[in-house]
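Q: What residues go here?
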């Protein structure tokens, strides 16, 4: 093969690899890093580690890694805030019949990078505060 043809193949291979980099599996991360990555990059896909992953494993009774896909659904006016859709899944979760199967759950959450709630994400008027008992009611 000529030197020129080898160079062309090398350039094509490098271009193909660079094109696939954004689709490479994400790294393992704890819940805080996952939220920050999703708010910053718009998506996180990878393995969840840390306390929440350990609790998830305890609940599902499976030692398999917890896979997370978190997608930014909407950015809010507050800087660093948005609505995230979490999909958490795990393989080899024991079922009621004793067999193992995959398990997946999905939920959405409004959150800011600093852990606070976005001010424009919720209409608090939709959630009236119920009457609180007074001290004399507790006697």
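A:
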């Amino acid at each position: 093969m000529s030197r020129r043809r080898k160079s062309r193949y090398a350039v094509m291979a490098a271009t193909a690899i660079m094109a696939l980099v954004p689709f490479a599996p994400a790294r393992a991360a704890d819940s805080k890093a996952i939220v920050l990555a999703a708010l910053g990059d718009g998506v996180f896909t990878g393995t969840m580690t840390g306390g929440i992953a350990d609790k998830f494993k305890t609940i599902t009774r499976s030692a398999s890694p917890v896979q997370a896909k978190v997608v930014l659904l909407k950015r809010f006016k507050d800087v660093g805030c948005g609505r995230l859709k979490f999909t958490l899944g795990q393989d080899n979760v024991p079922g009621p019949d004793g067999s193992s199967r995959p398990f997946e759950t999905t939920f959405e959450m409004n959150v800011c990078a600093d852990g606070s709630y976005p001010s424009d994400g919720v209409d608090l008027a939709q959630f009236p505060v119920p009457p609180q008992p007074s001290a004399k009611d507790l006697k």
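A: Context that may help when evaluating the design: The longest helix spans residues 3-20. Residues 8 and 14 are 10 Å apart (CA to CA).
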